[in-house]
Specification:
about 70 residues; mainly alpha; 3 helices; elongated
Length: about 70
């Protein structure tokens, strides 16, 4: 089970949400990463997406993520 970081508080479009769920499932079931590793990745991803959402004041989408630069 993925540790809950209330990603519902971040505006993320459905496509990005699906990619996140698929990726977490993949690393857990296919790569057999430990639950601690999955929780750490989930935490990092949560804080990154929260920053992007607050910084740009837009829903996190694939288009927004593609526009990110090294300064972000």
């Amino acid at each position: 089970m993925v540790k809950n970081f209330e990603m519902t508080n971040i505006k993320i479009d459905k496509q990005v949400q699906k990619y996140i769920v698929d990726w977490l499932f993949y690393i857990g079931k296919n790569l057999m990463y430990s639950q601690h590793t999955i929780n750490a990745y989930t935490s990092d991803l949560f804080y990154f997406l929260k920053f992007i959402n607050e910084h740009y004041q837009h829903t996190v989408s694939i288009a927004l993520l593609q526009k990110l630069t090294i300064q972000d």
